[in-house]
Amino acid sequence: METLRIVLLLLAVSVPLALLARWLALPYAVTLVLGGMALAFLPFLPQLTIEPGLVLAFFLPPLLHGAAVAMPWRAFRDNLRPILLLAVGLVLFTTLLVGVAVKLLVPSLPWAVCFATGAIISPPDAVAASSVLERMRLPPRLVVVLEGESLVNDASGLILYKFAIAAALTGSFSFADALVEFATVSVLGVGVGCAVGLATMWLAHRLPDTMLVIAVGILAAYGSYQLAEEAGGSGVLGTVACGLIIGWRGPMDLTPEARIAGRTAWEVIVFLMNTVLFLFVGMSLDEVVLRVGATTFWELVSVGIAVSLIAIAVRFLWVFPASFTQRYTLLGRPRPNPPPPLWALIVVSWAGMRGVVSLAAALAIPATLPNGAPFPGRDAVQVITFVVIVVTLVGQATTLGPLIRALGAELPSPSGDPNAATREHIAEVAVEHLRQRTDDPLDGAMALDLLPEFEARAAAVRGDGGAAAAVAAAARLSFYLETKRAQHRALLELHREGRISDATLQSLQLELDLDELRMRRVLGSTGER
After folding, report:
1. Residue 393 C-beta-side C-alpha neighbours within 13 Å
2. H helix intervals, 293-412
3. 408 phi-psi bin (left φ>0, alpha ψ -120 to 50, beta other)
4. What distance, in Å, lies between the first and last C-alpha atoms of the chain?
5. Same domain for 262 and 225
6. C-alpha angle 194/67/344, rounded to 5°?
7. pLDDT 10s per residue in the chain (529 long)?
8. 356, 374, 406 — which closes off a domain?
9. Quick check: is 528 in a domain?
């Protein structure tokens, strides 16, 4: 019960912290981490301890799954090369260079532990990147590359971390064996994830209830992770592959109700889990300080700051040279796409915030060696990791937005509807379909009855008549919303009088709300009631 009360307190605290982040125009991950650090030193608050395995097995799958489902599959496929250069190549490069740097800064640490530290720090955080990018209007390809990197790099970082920890425990390491195992766990993870994703969509397409479809989707997030791990593959890649399959097939196989309800459900799930995890990152400071002592802690903080700067520099050292490979195919032929501009390379290089996956991996380091001796440098690695997370979140996440604006990378606000051409096309298709049905002996009368309404919608979408059409559309929307409000008031009055049940109220209210939302979008308005 004590843990439950603490979790409820954290959820309650998250609301003002999220509002503060919105007011300050900051990623909410920053205010949550800093708020957690403040909570850590409150004397009346009991210490919250979360098992590292729980973070990886319970919190990570839905976070990665939700991001993967939202990832546009075609764009991810088309940009797979730069994504893998960052998610695999950069992670390996960071692991090596940061490992060497940690060895130079803390010579007493064994090499295996130093490289484990590099692997822990190597993958930027998916949630931290998304919390910044969602506020910005960036070129779609840049967003896909950064979010795609954050989906895949957790897997490569955790695989390297397991190799380094195994080397520290056994005292031996084989590069050839590690390379074969890396390929094996990657292929198995992707294969299991694709199989679970396809099976999920086959089942969801046949389920009659929206809530069952959402439940199956949640189970798929966890199932793909656990099954991939049980098969000897990467659970992270399994979850990502499953999410990409569901995101690809969802528009074709899911009902409109399932898509709307599922999107809302996942937004709530992801926000709640992010809230607990980022607050926990901040609250873990208290435990670390008590365990290592204040003097040692501040010495390790200086090391952590140095490692943070090195990790940031390593990303620049990789991104700029790696960008030249985008100009050529694997056979050395020039590619048709132009090289990325300088501002894009700077943005990608600066978007290297670390987060909860790094913290979970650091906390998961075993306490003892097989012979019973303490694991060397465990506390030092955890302090360094915590400092890197705080420095990159506070330093990079808060400055990424201003940097994007200073570089002129943000796209201008659209002057009109970016979907206007597509909206006009499907409106004309509807009109043409009805016109073809007007001569039908059975459905002709209904087609003639519906045709004026759809012709009016098509005219509004086309903007026929210029300013006059815009005024007419606004008047039509106002009149339509006024009518809907009258229906809503009548529905509430029936409920107050006891003439309809709560279930009837909820069902018809949902219909009115969806109908109003549809008309607002059709007529180009998203204003408040």
Report:
1. 29
2. 294-323, 342-350, 356-363, 378-392, 398-406
3. left
4. 41
5. yes
6. 115
7. 666 777 788 788 888 988 888 888 777 778 888 888 787 777 766 666 667 677 778 888 888 888 888 888 888 888 888 899 999 999 999 999 999 999 999 999 999 999 999 999 999 876 666 666 676 777 888 888 888 888 888 888 888 888 888 888 877 777 777 788 888 998 999 999 999 999 999 999 888 888 899 999 999 999 999 999 999 998 989 999 999 999 888 888 888 778 888 888 888 888 888 788 778 777 776 777 777 777 788 889 999 999 999 999 999 999 998 887 666 554 445 555 667 788 889 999 998 888 878 877 887 888 788 888 888 888 899 889 989 988 998 888 888 888 888 888 777 665 556 667 777 788 788 888 888 888 877 778 888 887 887 777 777 667 665 556 566 666 766 777 788 888 888 988 888 888 888 778 878 887 888 777 776 665 554 444 4
8. 406
9. no
Residue 492's domain spans which residues?
A: 420-522
Domain presence at residue 445: yes
Provide the Cα torsion 385, 386, 392, 393; round to 10°.
Answer: 140
As a whole number of angstroms, the distance between CA 26 and CA 132 comes to 8
Q: Are 76 and 144 in contact (CB under 8 A)?
A: yes
Clarify whether residues 350 and 454 are in a common domain.
Answer: no
**Which residue, chain included where needed, has tokens 């087609």?**
447
How far apart, in whole angstroms, are the C-alpha atoms of residue 94 and residue 88? 10
Q: Is residue 412 part of a domain?
A: no
Q: Is residue 233 part of a domain?
A: yes
Last residue of a domain, which of 406, 441, 460?
406
Instruction: Name residues whose C-beta falls within 8 Å of residue 272's C-beta, 6 or more positions apart in sequence.
Output: 11
Contacts 24+ apart (CB under 8 A), 337-344: 343/407, 343/408, 343/409, 344/139, 344/142, 344/409
Please check whether residues 97 and 120 belong to one and the same domain.
Answer: yes
Non-local (6+) Cβ contacts of 390 within 8 A are: 33, 37
Compute the Cα dihedral for 57, 58, 63, 69 and give only its sign.
positive
Structural tokens at position 290? 């008590």
Same domain? 94 vs 224: yes
Judge if 83 and 116 occupy the same domain. yes
Report whether 213 contacts 260 (CB < 8 A).
no
Do 391 and 505 reside in the same domain of the chain?
no
- Asked if 108 and 377 count as a contact pair (C-beta separation under 8 A), the reply is yes
Number of domains comprising the chain: 2
Same domain, 186 and 327: yes
- Secondary-structure percent of the chain, ordered helix, strand, coil, rounded to 5: 80, 0, 20
Q: How far apart are CA 441 and CA 181, in angstroms?
A: 67
